[in-house]
Amino acid sequence: MKNPASNIVPFVSVDHMMSLVVHVGIERFLVELAGYIEEDFHRWPVFDKTPRVASHSSSGVIELMPTSDGKLYGFKYVNGHPLNRHNGRQTVTAFGVLADVGSGYPMLLAEMTILTALRTAAMSAVAARHLAPAGASCMAIIGNGAQSEFQAMAFKALLGISELRLFDIDAPASRRCAANLRAHGFDVTICRSSQEAIETAQVITTVTADKQHATILTDNMVGAGVHINAVGGDCPGKTELHRDILMRSDIFVEYPPQTRIEGEIQQLAPDYPVTELWQVISGAAVGRRDERQITVFDSVGFAIEDFSALRYVRDRIRSTDFYDRLDLLADPDEPRDLFGMLLRHEGTRPAAKPNVPL
Q1: Is 210 marked active-site?
Q2: I need a surface site. Which of 10, 41, 198, 210 has the fewest CB within 10 A?
Q3: Coiled-coil ranges per the record (predicted)?
Q4: How many Å apart are CA 54 and CA 62, to the nearest integer?
C-alpha cells in the first residue's frame, strides 16, 4: 500500500536550523555532531569517494559534494565567493540532500550554510583530539570571519580550549569575534599580528578566505610541538602556510586526491607522504607521537562529513517541529500515469496569485 506521505520531504530551513541548534545547545550540538563524524570515519572504506565537482570562476567556486554508504546517499551544494563580503553577502552558502538508495527518494532537504560552519568546526576538533598536544588550552585564530566563533566553540566543547588569541587584518572583525566569544566564557586577546597571536598558543587555526596564494604563517614563526588547523582557502591556487612549514610537519588529510588539488599540500610533490585522518581515528595509523612534533590538519572538507551532518540532523529533528513538510515529489496513484495526474489537477487548480518578482 502506498505511503500517503511518500511525496513529503522534511525541509530544515535556516530558521529551523537555528532553532534546532539553540534547542540542543551549541556545545552539545557540536559534541554530538562530532560523534556522528567519528562514527562514519570508522567505516570510511564503505563510502563512495570522489573529489568534489567544482566550477571555478574568477570570483569564486561552486561545488557539488556527493557520497553514499550504500544505504543512504547525500550531497551538498556549496559555493565559496570571498568578495561577497564586500556587498553584504556570505562568502559560503550551502544546502544538502539525504536520500534513500533503495528507492532514490529524498529523505531530507536542509540548509547547510549554518550546518557547514558547525560541521567544519566539529571536524577540526575531531582531528585535534588526535593531533593536538595533550592538555592544550590556548588557541590562536588567524582570520576572524564567519567560521571563527564556530571553531572556538568546537575546540572548547571537545578539547577544553579556554584561551583565545585573535588576529585579522580587519580589526572590526576581531572585535566582533571577541565580543561574541567572551559571552561564552573565553579569555580573549586581540593581537596586532599573526606572530603575536601564535606566541603562546598550542593550537593554531588559520581560517582566511582570500582566493590567492598567501603566507599567513612563515616558517620562522612556527615552533616545535604545535598543532596547526589549516581551515581556510580550499581551492587550486589558495594556500595559507609557507611550504617549509609543511616540510617539517606531519600532515594529516581527509581524502588525498581532493586535498592535493585544493589544500596546502598542492605546494608539494604529488606523491609527498601524508596520513589519512580516518586511519588515525580507526587506530590504523599514529597521530601525535611526541611533544615536539608539529602536526598539520590540512582541512578542505569532504562529502562524508556533510553526510554525517545530514544524518545527525535527520535523527535530531524527529519528535520536533523544527522542519517543514515539503511537497517535493510528484506521486500519482498510478506510478505510470504522471500525465493523468496533471490532467486531474487542471480542474482543481486555484486561481493564480501575484508573486514577488525573483
Answers
A1: no
A2: 210
A3: none
A4: 6
The helix-helix angle for 113-131 and 14-24 (nearest 10°) equals 40
Closest Cα partner for 120 from 109, 131, 128, 108? Answer: 128
Question: Which residue bears the cell 587555526?
Answer: 205
Q: Which of 222, 218, 227, 221 is nearest to 298 (CA)?
A: 227
Rounded to whole angstroms, the Cα distance separating 174 from 200 reads 18
pTM as predicted: 0.92
Q: Which residues of 227-244 are buried (b: 16+ CB within 10 A; e: fewer)?
A: bbbbbbbbbeebbbbbee
Cα 174–Cα 178–Cα 183 angle in degrees, nearest 5: 160
Q: What is the pLDDT along the chain (358 residues), one digit of tens a residue?
A: 345 566 899 999 999 999 999 999 999 999 999 999 999 999 999 999 999 998 989 888 899 999 999 999 999 999 988 888 888 898 889 999 999 999 999 999 999 999 999 999 999 999 999 999 999 999 999 999 999 999 999 999 999 999 999 999 999 999 999 999 999 999 999 999 999 999 999 999 999 976 566 788 999 999 999 999 999 867 788 899 999 999 999 999 999 999 999 999 999 999 999 999 999 999 999 999 999 999 999 999 999 999 999 999 999 999 999 999 999 988 888 888 888 888 888 777 666 666 666 6
- CA distance linking residue 237 with residue 92, whole number of Å: 18
Residue (of 218, 236, 213) closest to 228 by Cα position: 218
Helix (H, G, I), strand (E, B) or coil at 106: strand
> How far does CA 275 lie from the centroid of its chain?
20
Q: What gap in Å lies between CA 261 and CA 51, rounded to an integer?
A: 9
Q: Are the beta carbons of 10 and 320 closer than 8 angstroms?
A: no
Q: Write down the catalytic residue from 40, 168, 234, 306.
A: 234
Locate 231 and state its grid cell.
Answer: 581551515
Q: How far is CA 196 from the centre of its chain?
A: 28
Dist CA 349 CA 358 (whole Å): 23
Q: Crossing angle for the helix pair 113-131 and 303-316, nearest 10 degrees?
A: 110
Give the H/E segment covering residue 80. strand 72-80
